[in-house]
Structures are given as C-alpha cells and as structure tokens.
From TrEMBL:
Pfam families associated with the record: Glyco_hydro_92 (PF07971), Glyco_hydro_92N (PF17678)
Gene3D superfamilies assigned to the protein according to its UniProt record, in alphabetical order: 2.70.98.10, alpha-1,2-mannosidase, alpha-1,2-mannosidases domains, GH92 mannosidase domain
Full protein name: Glycosyl hydrolase
Organism superkingdom: Eukaryota
GO molecular function: carbohydrate binding; peptide-N4-(N-acetyl-beta-glucosaminyl)asparagine amidase activity
GO BP terms, alphabetized: carbohydrate metabolic process; glycoprotein catabolic process
UniProt keyword list: Hydrolase, Signal
The keyword Hydrolase is annotated on this UniProt entry: yes
C-alpha cells in the first residue's frame, strides 16, 4: 500500500473518531442523570432521553425540538439520505434549520423541511452571501450536536450556533454568531426535502421586521399530484431588541444564477413545470441587542391555513416569552407524559432505562397534532386533526396498544381523527402524510387502531368523545364498500369478498389500484375483519360477529400446502381467481434473498405477493388465530422448530412490522421460556443507545413502542385486551392512567439484572413462574399460584403464566407480581390456558 494512502486512511479514521455526533457530552449527561436519579423520588425523566437514537442506519428519527405530538419539530436539514432532515453522519452537510419534520418515516427524499433558515457569514456584505443550497451548505463543528425533549442545538464549522425550542405550532430559534461577525440569514421559500414546491409567495415587512412565507408543496409518500399548503411567519426583531438592517430577495442555481435584490420585499412564484429544485427566498442581516454576545432570537409561527394564522400562532403560543421560558414549558409537557411510566431506576440497567425513556419519548412525538390547522376537505372540521399517520400498517401493532395502557385521552383524539377521515373522505385514513392521503400498505389498518381503542375503552368512549356506533360504521365501510381507488384508502373489497382472498391477476371492474401484494393484503384484510368482529361483539351484533369471524378466517384460503422451503411445508402464496396458486419462492424478499434488485415494496414490479416481506415472514402472521396456524404448519413441535429456524437462518427482519409478533409466538405453542430467550436476543442484537440503535426506520415510533413492550415484558394482541406476559427487563414499573385515575405496579420477584443480556446466563432468573394480581388493598384478584386463597380472596384465574387481560390489570390498578425463576424446566408451559385464538374458542365473550 502506498504510504500516502495509509496516511490518509489514518487521517480519515482520526477524523471519523473526532467528529462523532451527537456530542459525547449528551451521553455523559444522560448517564449522570440516571445515576443521580437512583435515590430520587421524582426523577426528571426528560433527562434520560436521548433524542439521537435512530439518527443513523436509516432509523430516520427526527431529533428535533418538539412538544408531545407537536405540529412542529425544529431540526436541521442535511444532504444525502435524510428523510427526517437530520442524520448524525458527519460527512453530510447542513443546509439550514427548519420547523416542519416527521420522525421515523421511510420516504427516500424526505418529508417537509419547508422554510429553512441558514445563518451565514458574508464578510463582503449582502451581495457576497452564498444563498444557493450548495453554496450555503456547511459541515458541523465536531462533537457539538445536542438535544433534549423540547430542545435542539447544532453548531456549524464556522462556529455559528443554532438552537430551537418549540410550542405546538411555533418556536423560538436562537443563533449565536462568532464575535465581531455580522449576522446574515438566508430564508428559503422554494425548498422542502422532497423537492415538491408548487408555487408560493414571500413578503418582507421591514417596519414590523416580519417575513411571511408560504405556498403549496407535495407529499412525501403519496400521489405526486396532491398538494398541501403551509405557511410561516418569521418575526425578526425579538420584541424590538434587534434591528433588521439589510433585506432583500434572491434566486440561485448551481450553474451561475446568483441574483439578489437588495431592498425588494416580494416574491410570487409558480410551479416550476420542468421540475427540479427551484431556489429562491429572502436574505437579510440583523443587528443584535448586545454585539458582544452576538446572539439573535427569531420567532417562528407555522400554520397550514394562512400566513395570518401562522403569525397569530406565534403570538398566542409564545408572545414575548424568552427562549429559556419556552424550553422549560416544553420540558414540563414532556415530563408529564414520560411520568406515565415510572421504573425502579436504581435497580435497572442504565442502558435499559435510557432505551425505555427514549422510546417513550418517541411514542409521544408523533402523530403531529394539527388541530385547528386542517385544510382541504377537513378545513371546517370540528374534530381533532392529526397529521402524519403514516402508516397505520406500522402503528397498529404496538404504538396504539402502548397508548391504550396510559393515555386514553390522546388515543381518543387520534381515533376521532380516523373517524373524521371516514366522514370526509368516505374511508378511514391509512397513510396520511403531509396532510394528504398517502399510499395504503396492508389495507385499512385503521380498523385495528379504532378497534383496539373500542375494546379497551368501551365504558369510557362516550366520555372520551367517541361514539362507538359511529366508529363501528366507519369500520364496516372499510370492509364492505369498495373505493374507486384502493391505493390511497379502503381495500379491494369486491373481489376479496367474492373469492375469499385477494386474487392475483383478477378482472376487477369496480376499482383501480396497483395489482400487487395479494398475499399480504389478504392476511391484513383478514386481521382487519377480526377487528370488526371484536367491536361487533362488544356492541352486541351477533350476526355481524358471525360474518366478520368468518371473514377473519379468509387467511386460510391462501395457505398453499404444497410449497416447501428448507424442509418446512406449507406457506402463504398469492393465488389466481380460479384457485390455482402462483408459486413464489418463500425466501424471496427475505434477508436471505440473493437477488439484490428484486422489487419488494409498492413497485408494480413486485410480483412476490407480499409487501416488504417474504412469504417466510408473513407465513407466521395470523395474530388472531395462531393456534390454527400451528395446525397448518404441522403441530406445536414443527411450529417451534419452524420459528427457531426462522430466526436462526436469518429470515427474521427486526425492523419490519410483520415480524413484530414472531419472537413471542412460542407462547402459542406452550413454550413461553423460548419467547423470553428470543426477545432478549432480539433486543440486544438490534437495539441500543447509539445513533444506530434501531434496526430500521422507527416508523412513527412503531419500533420504539415494540422495544418498550419488550422491556416491560408484555406483548399486545391488537383489537383485544389480552397481553402476553414475558420477562420484564426492569425490576419494577408503574403505569399511571390519569384518565382512569388508576396506577398499576408490576413488581418482579427474583429479578436478576444479569439476565438482561443477549443470552440469559444459566442460573439467572428470567422465566415467569407465577403471576399474582392484587387489588390496591392487597386482596388477590387472581393468581397462578396453586392456593391463592392463603393470600386473600381469590377469584377464578383469568389468565395464566402466559397472558392476562387489561380488564383484570391495568384497567383496575393495583399490583401485578411476576415471580421469575432460573429454572426453565418447570415453567416452560403456560401452566393453564394458552393465549386466545379464534379457532380454539378465544374471545368468545367481550370483556367490558
Ligand atoms: C442511595 O442511597 C443509599 C442509602 O442512602 C446510598 O448508600 C447510595 O450510595 C445512594 N446511591 C446513589 C446512586 O446515590
Ligand atoms: C455518510 O455520508 C457520506 C457522504 O454522503 C456517505 O458516502 C457515507 O456512505 C455515509 N455513511 C454512512 C454510514 O451512511
Ligand atoms: C401571485 O401570482 C398569482 C398567479 O401566479 C396571482 O394569482 C396572485 O394574485 C399573485 N399574488 C400577488 C399578491 O400578487
Ligand atoms: C450500554 O451501552 C454502551 C454504549 O452503547 C455499550 O458500550 C454497553 O455495552 C452497553 N451495556 C449494556 C449492558 O448493554
Ligand atoms: C391537540 O391540540 C388541541 C388544540 O390545542 C388540544 O386540545 C389537544 O389536547 C391536543 N392533543 C394532543 C394529543 O396533543
Ligand atoms: C360463517 O361460516 C359458517 C361455517 O362455514 C357458515 O355456516 C355460516 O353461514 C357463515 N355465516 C355467515 C354470516 O357468513
Ligand atoms: C388458473 O389460471 C392460471 C392463469 O391463467 C392458469 O395458469 C391455470 O392453469 C389455471 N388453473 C386452472 C385449474 O384452470
Ligand atoms: C431479480 O429480480 C428482478 C426483479 O424482480 C428480476 O427481473 C430478475 O430476473 C431477478 N434475477 C434473478 C437472478 O432471479
Ligand atoms: C402469599 O402468601 C405467602 C405466604 O403467606 C407469602 O409468602 C407470599 O409473599 C404471598 N404472595 C403475595 C403475592 O402476596
């Protein structure tokens, strides 16, 4: 090797190490906070949150400053693949700081990123400022990115520091320039991350020191012909403490266009029909209050309705409050949410504490609360309005179930938005993104989101503002009414009902949609029908219960007994309308697929029959009837071997939602200790506290909430109140449900921190032996202990070592004592009832 090359390699390595982002001080601060909290009764849970987890390795997490469910999330926008704006990769440049982002989505170009502001140094004055995207971009200062709930900070390599702190629809930005430099700013009208500008205006009011800006932009994950509108209001004078000096407008490109209009105050641009990035905006300089500190405060209001409303939002939500005041208000909002789950910090491994609270943080980060900011058909709605629901296929499995344990008020508001989607569009939304309808993935996963709410809050629904009859009507519409185009809402209902599965290559004369994913759509539709069955049962509609129970079994119609893979027989496959199966190798689209170019997502060339998955993966997905799936596969023993093989051979995709339930499926084969071992392995192989600590896109906290359930030792079955019980990774936790006014403490007897590892060491206590559920007064509600009578008044067992029900536990409050043992031998069975399956009489009566 050439000497110079070695030199550069070493230099490069050194650079990489030296340029770590976020700042190492962040982790140090979190570690110290966790240590200090060991003896505190009311710890500051916000101090345990690392917002940068998932900002590398395509986690696509937005570490930006937001309040819980904030409509704005202030973060920098970077070059390269950065759907959430920010990435921790130090080789990417910063283009500016902007107020609108989503977190965890997988869109390739990104989502939002409108109204970027970039602080710049222009020693030669106004005319010499670099305004174009490429001209103004800069690297970061090493080890400087920082953040916390409600706060974001990044320092450029020219030592300009940018900070932001939010309210729901506005925020304060603080820029600190190096001493003796003149602060200039480039404000961008025509750029958002997906390069979707479709026309807009910018106006500078020099007297007010205000720039209003807004226009029409396109979706990050949906039809390109749909546009949404967004507006911003930048107040530049900090209540009169700062002065606007020079101002004007600019237009630029990378090929020589670099035009500036000093003193001009107006831009009115239309859609650039030839496409590509259109670069234009405002340029201005500010005089700070204190030239020595050289610190500038900018107030930003956002609205999806008008510039007037954007200004009013900033005025009402921030007014003249200072940066530190807004930051403290945001912190308190976060603290209130994060305190809904409290753990024994002293007894828990610090990394687990950090992973849990960072996951909880993201579980309250999205969807974005745009109530009062609705547009289009929702403009006049009285309902709550949430943006960025993408996609329901991701979030129904763990995100909403976690919300159901502690936050029914927030959950009900989001359910309201789903039902309102049905009122205004005719079907419930699947993948609302950027206020627009996005692509459907598995069908109408909203059914499982509202269904899960209904079964948990039947008694309180009305008080929470939800009419369950209306909710049910919305679900039935999803199942029965064929939309004209099922790519953006609804399902391909007519042919599904006619054939009992979504047929491949079928003549469909009643609707359009991309003819792909027939296998996975059948499986998801069937599970959506199960959700409807559950609500029909709740509302005492026996005929509907029968209808939707039958339809929930349609998954059986695509089981092809003849397909074999790795010695295992029987797989789901897509199927022609004449009944003949279409063979696809079950390995296709799995991590073991050698074909790097195979299309596995929404592409028309995806001929595999499954969405973002292999048949190996989806052939383990029948959450409502796993007992029958076990029969199809050949009985418990073969099933356990097959699940083992699935993991050991590498078909499992930790970052993919259809895989979420697989690690705990041993429960259904009466082998709960294997689920415990598998979950430990999954967590420690795929999750961590670094920027790369997620196995894939966070998908609006789908991944975060899966991890939270794994840490808590629970797994939810959507649209049911049943929870599978595993082995908590913390010795004690309490879930508070402020709306119900109850708190439930899970106390782990024989907890052993040594078991919290990828492989549970022999002798480490980790396996569930017994569960006892106690009322707040200490009386035993039920117990797996043989003679619970000795402990008080026992009711008949309503669960087993493997599962319990919300109505016996978190609904009522009290204590759940989980006793662990190192002895796998004696506890590797549910010791009573298995978790429910439709075909074995499960859910035969609604719990209310
Ligand atoms: C917590 O308090 C106990 C008893 O007062 C003490 O021994 C221990 O060192 C404290 N732990 C921490 C982390 O401060
Ligand atoms: C970081 O960004 C650089 C520049 O775009 C890119 O070449 C590199 O692959 C990225 N690294 C990672 C780990 O993504
Ligand atoms: C901006 O331009 C559009 C046409 O492109 C026009 O309809 C609109 O009135 C203009 N706005 C102003 C304020 O001039
Ligand atoms: C905790 O996280 C750090 C940093 O990622 C890692 O080095 C350490 O191994 C982790 N410890 C455990 C017990 O997982
Ligand atoms: C959403 O915003 C509305 C209007 O401010 C508020 O009433 C509601 O509580 C918010 N909901 C959540 C979940 O943040
Ligand atoms: C449901 O399926 C059963 C058994 O196949 C059948 O007897 C019954 O008529 C079906 N009910 C409805 C409402 O489709
Ligand atoms: C069903 O249709 C497919 C596609 O046209 C054809 O290949 C197959 O032979 C047909 N099966 C039967 C049983 O007719
Ligand atoms: C790989 O997949 C592509 C796209 O589906 C397909 O056209 C091609 O034939 C496949 N290659 C092999 C070797 O199977
Ligand atoms: C039940 O009673 C036994 C014997 O009195 C006691 O040791 C045990 O801690 C009790 N269990 C619970 C869950 O209270």
């Amino acid at each position: 090797m050439d000497f110079r090359l070695i030199f550069f390699e070493i230099l490069w390595l050194f650079t990489l190490l030296a340029l770590a982002q976020p700042s190492p001080a962040l982790q140090q601060r979190i570690s110290d906070a966790i240590k200090d909290a060991a003896n505190q009764t009311n710890p500051d849970y916000t101090a345990f949150v690392n917002p940068f987890i998932g900002t590398a390795k395509d986690g696509n997490v937005c570490p930006g400053a937001s309040i819980p469910f904030g409509m704005v999330k202030f973060s920098t926008d970077m070059t390269g693949y950065a759907p959430a704006g920010y990435v921790s990769n130090v080789s990417e440049y910063i283009r500016g700081l902007s107020p609108l982002h989503d977190s965890g989505t997988g869109s390739s170009l990104g989502t939002y990123g409108n109204f970027e502001i970039m602080p710049v140094l222009c020693p030669g004055g106004f005319e010499t400022c670099t305004t174009s995207l490429n001209g103004r971009q800069r690297f970061r200062k090493p080890d400087s990115d920082d953040g916390a709930p409600g706060y974001f900070s990044l320092t450029l390599d020219n030592n300009i520091k940018m900070e932001a702190t939010p309210t729901r629809r506005s925020g304060l930005e603080r820029f600190t320039f190096p001493p003796n430099t003149k602060p200039y700013f480039v404000l961008d009208l025509a750029n958002d991350l997906p390069v979707s500008f479709a026309g807009g205006e910018l106006n500078i009011d020099p007297e007010l020191g205000r720039i209003t800006i807004g226009g029409r932009y396109g979706s990050s994950f949906g039809p390109g012909r749909f546009n949404y509108q967004a507006f911003a209001c930048y107040d530049l004078l900090d209540g009169g403490k700062q002065k606007l000096e020079e101002f004007g407008v600019w237009t630029a490109d990378n090929y020589g266009l670099n035009a500036k209009g000093l003193g001009l105050t107006h831009l009115n641009l239309s859609l650039n029909l030839i496409g590509g990035v259109y670069q234009s905006g405002a340029l201005f300089s500010l005089l700070p209050e204190n030239p020595e500190a050289n610190e500038l405060n900018v107030r930003v209001g956002i609205s999806f309705r008008s510039t007037e409303q954007a200004c009013a939002n900033a005025e009402s939500e921030i007014g003249s409050a200072t940066f530190d005041e807004i930051r403290e208000r945001a912190r308190l909002l976060w603290l209130e949410k994060l305190s809904r789950i409290e753990i024994d910090v002293a007894g828990s491994p610090p990394n687990v504490t950090e992973m849990l609270y960072s996951s909880l943080y993201r579980s309250f980060l999205t969807p974005n609360n745009a109530t009062g900011e609705s547009q289009g058909v929702f403009a006049d709605t009285n309902a709550f309005y949430f943006d960025s629901l993408y996609c329901s296929w991701d979030t129904f499995r763990t995100f909403f179930p976690l919300l159901s344990l502690h936050s029914p008020v927030e959950y009900a508001q989001i359910v309201d938005t789903y039902i309102d989607g049905w009122r205004k569009h005719g079907w419930m939304p699947e993948c609302r993104a950027n206020n627009l309808q996005g692509w459907t993935q598995g069908g109408t996963s909203a059914d499982n989101i509202v269904g899960h709410f209904a079964v948990h809050y039947y008694n309180e629904a009305q008080r929470l503002g939800i009419d369950l009859q209306e909710l049910y009507q919305a679900m039935v519409t999803d199942a029965e009414v064929n939309p004209p185009e099922w790519n953006i809402q609804g399902r391909q209902v007519n042919v599904y009902k006619q054939y009992g599965y979504v047929p491949f290559a079928v003549l469909d004369t009643s609707s359009t949609g991309r003819q792909t994913r027939e296998g996975s759509r059948t499986l998801e539709y069937a599970f959506e029908d199960f959700a409807i069955r559950q609500v029909a049962q709740l509302l005492d509609k026996p005929e509907d219960v029968e209808r939707y129970t039958n339809m929930s079994l349609f998954y059986r119609n695509i089981w092809d007994t003849s397909v074999e893979s790795d010695g295992f027989k029987g797989f789901f496959q897509k199927r022609y309308s004449n009944g003949t199966f279409f063979y696809n190798n079950p390995i296709d689209c799995s991590p073991n697929d050698k074909n790097e170019t195979r299309a596995c997502s929404l592409q028309g060339t995806n001929t595999n029959g499954f969405y973002e998955s292999s048949s190996w993966e989806y052939s383990l997905f029948v959450p409502h009837d796993t007992a029958y799936l076990i029969e199809l596969i050949g009985g418990r023993e073969t099933f356990v071997k097959r699940v083992d093989h699935f993991f050991d051979k590498g078909y499992y995709l930790a970052g993919n939602e259809p895989s979420f339930q697989t690690p705990v499926e041993y429960h259904y084969a009466d082998r709960p200790t294997k689920s415990v071992q598998r979950v430990r392995e999954v967590v420690f192989q795929n999750f961590g506290i670094g920027p790369g600590g997620l196995p894939g896109n966070d998908d609006q906290a789908a991944m975060a909430t899966l991890l939270a359930f794994h840490i808590l030792g629970l797994y939810p079955v959507p649209s049911t109140t049943q929870y599978l019980v595993l082995s908590p990774m913390v010795p004690r936790y309490t879930i508070h449900n402020p709306f119900l006014g109850v708190s439930t403490t899970v106390r782990v007897v024989n907890y052993d921190a040594k078991s919290v590892a990828e492989k549970i060491p022999p002798g480490a206590s980790a396996y569930v032996k017994d569960i006892t559920v106690l009322a707040s007064d200490g009386t035993v509600r039920w117990s797996t202990v043989e003679d619970p009578a000795t402990n008080g008044t026992a009711t008949p067992s309503r669960g087993s070592r493997c599962h319990f029900d919300f109505y016996d536990t978190f609904r009522l409050g009290g204590e759940i004592v989980i006793t662990l043992t190192p002895d796998t031998h004696h506890v590797d069975s549910c010791g009573g009832s298995l978790p429910d399956s439709i075909s074995t009489g499960g859910w035969n009566k609604a719990r209310k």
